[in-house]
Amino acid sequence: MAAAEVLNHTSVVVPQPKDVFTSQIRRQSPPHLSGKRSKRYKQKQAPVSHHPQGSGSDEQRSGGIREATSASSRQWSWTSLTDTSVSSHPPIFTKDGSHFFSIAGSTIKIHSVSSGKIVSMLPRSQDEGHTDTITSATLSAHNSFQLLTASLDGTIKVWDFLEGVLLRTIVLDQPIHHICTHEKIKDYIFVAAAKTKKLKSSHAQDENCIVLRVSLNPQESGNLTRTQKLPDVLAVGKVKRTAGLALSASGESLIAISGRRSYVAQTSALKSGFIKFTSPEPLTCLAVHPFEDYFATGDVKGVVRLWYCLNPNLVKVVGVEKKSQTSAFHWHAHAVSSVAFSTNGAYLLSGGEEAVLVIWQLHTGKREFVPRVGSPIKSVTVSPPKVSEEEYFLELADATHAFVSSKTLKLSRVFARIKLAPSVPNAFPSSSSSPLAFHGLSETLVLPSSHPSSLQTFSPSALALVAELEVAPSNRVSRRDEKMLEPSRVERVVVSSGGEWMATIDCREGDEYFRGEIYLKFWYWDKKNAFWILNTRIDQPHGLRKITSMSFSPSPSNIQLVTIGDDGNVKSWRIRSTKDKKGQEEISWVTRSSFGYKSDTPRHASWSPDGSLLAIVFGSSVVLYDPYTNVPRHVFVCHESQRPREVHFIGVSGRFLAAVGGMDLVVWNVMSRSVLWHVKNDRPYDTLLPHPHRDAFVTIHSSHSTPAHAVVTIFHVRSPVRQMEQTLPFALRNVVWYPQSYSPTNSESFSLVGLTHGYSVVLMGDDVDPQERRPISFKTLQKGQSVPRKSLFEEMFGVPLIPNESLQHSRDQTTANPGPVLPWRSNETATFFDAPSHLIPPIHTFFESLVDGFLTLRVADEERQEELDVQEEAGSKLSDHSGAVFTKSADIAAESVLDTLIPVFREIAESSNYSNDSKKASIPPNTAPVLAKSTPRHASRLDRPPQLDSPAPDQSVVPVGHVKVGKKRSRSSLG
Fold first, then answer.
1. pLDDT (tens digit, 9 = 90+) per residue, 219-257?
2. Rounded Cα–Cα distance for residues 683 and 703 (Å)
3. Which helix (H) or strand (E) element contains residue 781?
4. Which residues is 712 bridged to in the sheet?
């Protein structure tokens, strides 16, 4: 039944029900609640439900209560789609450069360099992991397949990341901030830990640190536990809280930076302590040159400084202080967050808040830039050099990983999920509502991005970022001083039911020098390119007043957009079609109408499911309009709530209307034009969301107290009894309906996606299962299909464009018949290498025997020559019977061609007539006899007269047949 026809039904006068307070209604006690609150829920009270006469049958009236009873054990599950906040510690590459490690809270994620996907995680089980945030990590100097992690829980853990196994745990009982190792000091690890000083203020504990040398050798004891509680520890010195800790390239110096000072200690005399050097500004980051004895730092003023204090001859003593020779580079306007040297040591990389990678040439002081990387740079790392080129790896503040080519100085690969990071300054709207919508055609979410003037589309099914849309083009420059620049912000977004149109509101607040801006923009979905295209921009749709609500009509044939502003007007927008001079149709959006109700300010608008009615909240009233004539059809005066905030049609037919305002929830029957029931909550409601296929809805109210949480409640329109109530461990900013791709179209389950106050995207509902991250072991990655080995000819001259069928056939035969089992292909050897790295004996114990198995003796030259002679005789017989036979160049085996060309090159090089200084290379006429002496059988073939059935030189010859590769013919035999 259409919503407009429902209003024409004869109304039934019924008595209005009394208000029902929340404590009078029997709630369903969630299983996770306990204590006094749970006892209050278990009080046996008769359910209070009010139904007007004529609103349904007895079975319908009791259906809500029966459903509540059956749903007592019903609970929602939820999962977060966003990553944990980015760590300040730079990522770590494996020795071969194929994977890298990133720190995310108390876990380590292992990514693939080529695809950026997470292939494994540490720990595999929560029992083995750290209990607090991981602050530092490094590869083991003993074994490059082992990873060392340090945490604020005071432990150092040694992992075998190939197997995902925890090998050892070293307990220091002190929060650890930095660790470092060196290949020349394999038995020890250097640690910067907070001093154990019991103070009331936790901040005071972080002010002072102590640098320790910790032994990695397990102490001899009968206990077989993997936890080492009393390691061999040597205190090097006390410092302020460290901002970096590293060992020099030679391993002779230990470097720490803290505050305005850099500390240097000799590893051969650690008991002598640190030598202090003063910096003009507080230091923020540290990097050590890969070959020479100096290091680089960055400070809060944007200065990159090179320190030459590792060489005692360059240290000067001025009074009591020791000063070092330094050189400074300055471009950054704000603090430098990370510095790194290139692998050859010729360049220094730096990045910071400006979102610009600066590349310094150390010998000349010149610099190059990689601008607009997308977000402030948190860390810079240089990937291990591969066969082709070196890459610079950037970890951005919005959890994006970006690779920069060292040749082109452009972004080569960018791996990103949801770009939401609270650490990015001014990244989100200032209002309480944040843009959030679901696009049905692409099954993606439209979310705010790391820059407030942009939106991003994310696919929850693929867990991948699809695209980023710059709604308000802006210069992404950093702040000029301490005061942040006010950018344009996307405040609201809504997508039509058909998915073809999207409307956005972006604004920029004005000040004494700048007049404020606000724009309403309509975007059209380009199905071919799968991207949003700007169609119409409307300046100041409601003047300079903010837009508080907007909604598309559900009818795709006569689509409209309704906007509500603080100016007191309700405006509707429609599509206008015109033709240009060339006769092409142009579509744009224009104003259709503008109206108001008395002097009340509208607050929210909602469409009926069929689009025949429009409900708008004015003051304490809810007015139903005919959207085509703008004529009011009915006015619901909300005596129960003086200020309703939201109103929505409930059910597929739009027969019911629900409104929330403050702590009140009111449900009307549109057909009888009466109140069904009213509930007063103990906390203000935030929002109400109807179910698209049921006569049910969900209400949410959040609490910002510590810890923040949200209470989700499900109601049926026929009963004030709660169908379900659950507390979620986060507060919500915005919530939209999210249809699951695997759920039926008319599913009765709830599925929502919300944006939390911590700017995390959370998927929640009945059918939402927490994502189980099933890591892939590295053995699986290494045991993939082997790449066909190229021949020496292909390595020198490249792979031929024409496919070589004979060569491919020979490779297939080799693959099908591998022949004798080689030592490195045997099952015993493979099983031996599949063992965990910590169980494999040292490589030097089986190196010789293993390498001897790999090496095979080369065939002697005499045996090779006899083999060629036999092949030549077989080829001669074939040629005698078939005459002059030609072959395709693609059918010639590459290795045989190379074997043929090598003697020719050798004879030419040894010829007395060959000279490197000659201006023009020429082949002497006696080359053929020289070749004949070295290969007598070839000479007999060259002296043989041409066959009678040989084709004429001017005749076109079709290449047919096959000859033995490497046979040489005289000029007369060829034509």
1. 654 444 567 666 788 999 999 999 999 999 999 999 999
2. 9
3. helix 778-782
4. 700, 726
